[in-house]
Structures are given as structure tokens and as C-alpha cells.
Design brief:
Largest sheet: 6 strands, mixed
CATH topology of the domain at 264-347 and 428-516: Rossmann fold
Shape: globular
Helix content: 25-40%
Number of strands: 20
């Protein structure tokens, strides 16, 4: 699926990025000298491992972030600078995010026109106008939903078609798609690619296609740029690439034989331990995932790895009682039922990379440290006893938290807040720790301290089930890693088999290949 021969390096650049660099304090270089040209009628793939800088590049190109240095040029306009996403949209840059910011209670047509050119809620006559506008856009996309269909009744593919139509209606000449196929099935993925190809060929729109799935990038793209550690390390026509080559370019430092000889992706083995041992998940199926089995023995550290849409965060949230699921979960022989409060009583702990979900900013560090146990008592009490202050102080010292027990949580840095969110569980004996991105936003020193404490769970009556989008973190922490692809276990690695290359290759496998029907 390639564009016409005219869609080449001789085509007109619609958008050009020149030496974009982004440095976050104190000296984190997220993007370094990033350059890219998006040409009319061309689909340009952008590939890179987690943390390579793809998200930063997208944010700068769409006005969410401003570059530390470098420039952006748009055809017929020249150099442009953005203070907000509306500035980027105004010059013709559209974006379709993985999390689609559409309104489910409105129709497809209303979502396309609402908010553009200052439009608020539509009157009846305006709704008819919106239907006409939408019809003209939707005819380009086979499978697009009817204009009068409410989005709450439609699937993700339909949402994507509406989001693309909205971007085009706003005047997009360069269209950026961020992980567009992460939650799509095979047929919808193929339909999306056909529609993108048609859009580029017939309308001359320049498309930047950003995805973790290398087969998708190679299938739909004309050119592919590879970014690693914030820098562009390779660029070539898609016809001249294959998945192993692309993966080597993304990972770096590995010779051809090292990638090809990485441990084979083995299907997760059926593990059966006595009910009294560890964490046991039988046919657990949170919303959006097919039922899976998983076991973590006492003293074992097991990792979950997957790309966006893998379902790993949802699995942890379901086990902790934060979302409904089918199946049975047990910890040390005790079936886990009821609310999160009951699961804390049963011995579960949970930490999320999203600190807003688990911390109360206006409360003191001490109160937040004791929050899980306060919630199990049915009503909150004032902290009066020495053990509460002593436990908080112990966590502060162990994790090198820059702060005191009495200060408001919101006055701590994000990394120090994360240390408290995790550290409050680690002094508990016999805890089953469910950790989702446990070191998100934590500096190098704090990361080492957290890893040391998490590893201690492997030498006690506790257990660790941890999800991270950083494969190096799982290599450092885990004795076993299960790779999830679109909600299903696709591969499993143990001991020395756990390498960054092996995890990345397995996570990027197509679900149709990785998992038997």
C-alpha cells in the first residue's frame, strides 16, 4: 500500500521541522536536533521505542509544548510559532490523538463542527448545515458512521473517522495520527490504512503516522523516520525496510545477530500453584480485555509489558477493585471480592503513575501516607499516635524524599509525591503489591531506592505484579515478564531471557501471529 511515485522527496513540503530541541529542567534532553519534512500526498511513519521522544515531537508540532530551540515552517506561510494547540490548528496542523477528545452524547456531525470558528451548541438549522458538512467529508471514508449517529453508540474505528473528518474541516493540511491502531482489530486497521492512503493520494494531505506497531508503520507509510534517545537516527523509504531492520535502528547498540538471536517469544505457560500461595487470577476479564489466567507466587516479582492498548493498567486496576471484571482473583487462598477497602484488608496494595488518583494534595504527607488504612476504618480519624509519624518518617528517609511529614502533599515535587504513594505500602508484611508505572516522574536516585524496596518483596511472604512502559525497568526488577498484546498474553520470559530487545520485539508482534486463535 504505497502512494504514487510523485509522493517522493520532490513533492512539496507542507510542514518542515528544523533542529527542534526540548530540554526540561534541570537538564533532561527529551528531543535533540529533531528534523522532519512532511510532504503533500505522503504518509510519513515515525517509529521509536518507549521514551524515544515521539510524544515530545508531537506535542511541539501541535503547540502543546514549545521547543527550547529550532523552528517549524508551513508551506505558503513560512516560519511559525505556537503558544497553544489552537495556533497549530489555525495554520493547518491537525492531530488525532489516541485518546479521542470527542463528545459521546453528540452526533458525528455535531462533533465535527462544534467549537470550530467559535461554534457553540447548535440550533436546529445549524444541525442540518452540520449534516451537510459532515456528509461531504465522510464520503471520503468508507465505513464512516452516519452524520446523525451519536458517538456513544459507535465503536473506536467510527470515532477515528469522525476525529479525522473534524481535523479536515478545521483546515488541516498536515495530519498527525498518534497510535491510531492501538485498540483496533485487523479489519478496522486495514480499513483505516486504506482511507489514509486515499486521503493522501486524492487530497494531497501530508500525514505523520506515529505507531509502536512496526508492521502497521511499514504497511501504510511511504517514508519512515526512526527516533532514538530524542534524536533522528535513520530515515528511509518504507519499501527498503523490514521489521528486524527497523527494530535494530530503534533499539541501537545491537548487531544484526543480537536482534535475530533474541530469545524466542514463548507463550505463557500454564502455572498452577496451591490456592494458599501467592496471587492467582482465573479467567480475569476487565472491560476491553479477553479473559486471561495469571499467577504470581509468594516471593516472586512478575512484570507486565506492553504498548499502548495492551490492557496491563486495566488488569491491575481490576484486581484492586477499581473497575469491574469477570473471573476470580485470589491472594494467599482468599478470594478477592467487594470494594478496594476490602482488598486492602485482604493484603493488596496499589500504586499508580497517576498520582492524582491516590493522593490528596491539601492533606499532609503524613495523612497521605496513612490514607489506605484510614479508609479501611469506615471513617477518618486524626493521626495522633507515634507509629503513624514514625512510619512516614521511615519512608521519607528510605526513599530520600525532599519534604517533611507535616507539610501539604501538593508542595512536594511530582517525583517525591510518587515516592510517598509507593512507600506507604512497602513496610507492610505479606503485601501483594500491584504497581503501575511505579517510578513515573521519579529522579534517578529515587528510582534506585524504589527498585531496591520492590526487590525486597521477592524475599518475603509478599509478591509483586508490576507494569511499566520502560522495558529496562522490568529487566532490572523482575524474575518473569509476561508481554501483553491487545489485552492477551502473547509471550513470557524468565531470568536471563528478559532483555530489552526480547520484550520490545514481542510487544510489537501482531496479535494475529503472537496469539493462537
Amino acid at each position: 500500500m504505497r502512494g504514487q511515485e510523485t509522493s517522493s522527496n520532490t513533492a512539496t513540503p507542507v510542514l518542515e521541522a528544523h533542529n527542534l530541541t526540548k530540554v526540561y529542567p534541570p537538564n533532561v534532553r527529551a528531543l535533540v536536533g529533531f528534523s522532519l519534512a512532511l510532504r503533500a500526498g505522503e504518509i510519513h511513519g515515525l517509529a521509536g521505542a518507549n521514551g524515544a521522544g515521539k510524544s515530545t515531537a508531537i506535542k511541539i508540532l501541535t503547540g502543546v509544548e514549545q521547543p527550547t530551540s529550532g523552528t517549524i515552517e508551513m508551506a505558503t506561510i513560512g516560519e511559525v510559532a505556537f503558544d497553544a494547540p489552537t495556533d497549530a490548528a489555525r495554520v493547518g496542523i491537525g492531530v488525532v490523538h489516541q485518546e479521542l477528545p470527542l463528545l459521546p452524547n453528540l452526533t458525528a456531525a455535531e462533533n465535527v463542527v462544534l467549537g470550530i470558528d467559535g461554534r457553540g451548541p447548535l440550533r436546529r438549522s445549524q444541525r442540518q448545515e452540520a449534516l451537510g458538512i459532515y456528509a461531504g467529508l465522510a464520503e471520503r471514508f468508507p465505513g464512516a458512521p452516519p452524520g446523525d449517529a451519536k458517538l456513544e453508540h459507535l465503536g473506536l474505528y467510527a470515532w477515528q473517522m469522525v476525529a479525522i473528518a473534524r481535523a479536515l474541516h478545521s483546515g488541516a493540511r498536515a495530519l498527525i495520527l498518534d497510535e491510531p491502531t492501538s485498540s483496533l482489530g485487523t479489519e478496522d486497521r486495514a480499513a483505516l490504512h486504506r482511507n489514509l492512503r486515499s486521503l493522501a493520494d486524492e487530497s494531497g494531505v501530508a500525514v505523520l503516522y506515529v505507531s509502536h506497531f512496526l508492521d502497521d508503520v511499514l504497511e501504510v507509510s511511504d517514508l519512515v523516520t526512526v527516533i532514538r534517545d530524542g534524536r533522528v537516527v535513520a530515515a528511509a523509504r518504507a519499501d527498503d525496510l523490514d521489521e528486524p531492520t527497523l527494530l535494530r535502528q530503534m533499539l541501537g547498540g545491537a548487531g544484526e545477530s543480537e536482534v535475530e538471536d533474541a530469545p524466542a517469544a514463548r507463550r505463557p505457560r500454564a502455572r498452577r500453584v496451591a490456592d494458599a500461595e501467592g496471587l492467582r487470577l482465573d479467567r480475569i476479564g476487565p472491560s476491553g480485555m479477553k479473559p486471561i489466567d495469571l499467577e504470581v507466587g509468594l516471593g516472586e516479582r512478575v512484570g507486565l509489558y506492553g504498548l499502548e492498548g495492551s490492557g496491563a493498567p486495566g488488569l491491575l486496576e481490576a484486581v484492586f477493585g477499581l473497575k469491574p471484571y469477570a473471573g476470580v482473583a485470589r491472594w494467599r487462598g482468599r478470594e478477592l471480592t467487594g470494594s478496594t477497602r476490602a482488598r486492602i484488608d485482604a493484603g493488596l496494595g496499589f500504586v499508580s503513575g497517576d498520582r492524582k488518583r491516590s493522593l490528596i494534595g491539601d492533606w499532609s504527607v503524613e495523612m497521605n501516607h496513612a490514607l489506605p488504612w484510614l479508609s479501611t476504618q469506615g471513617r477518618f480519624r486524626l493521626l495522633r499516635s507515634r507509629p503513624d509519624r514514625a512510619a512516614t518518617t521511615a519512608t521519607i528517609e528510605a526513599l530520600a524524599v525532599k519534604g517533611t511529614a507535616g507539610q501539604p502533599m501538593r508542595t512536594l515535587s511530582g517525583g517525591n509525591q510518587q515516592k510517598i504513594a509507593l512507600g506507604r505500602w512497602l513496610g507492610r508484611d505479606g503485601v501483594c503489591m500491584l504497581a503501575d508505572e511505579p517510578t513515573h516522574g521519579v529522579d534517578a536516585h529515587g528510582r534506585v531506592a524504589i527498585h531496591e524496596l520492590l526487590r525486597e518483596l521477592g524475599g518475603s511472604s509478599s509478591a509483586l505484579l508490576v507494569h511499566s512502559t520502560d522495558p529496562e525497568e522490568l529487566v532490572a526488577l523482575c524474575e518473569r515478564v509476561v508481554v501483553l498484546v491487545k489485552g492477551l498474553p502473547a509471550a513470557e520470559f524468565e531470568g536471563e531471557e528478559i532483555t530489552v530487545d526480547a520484550l520490545e520485539a514481542a510487544a510489537r508482534s501482531n496479535l494475529d501471529v503472537a496469539v493462537a486463535a
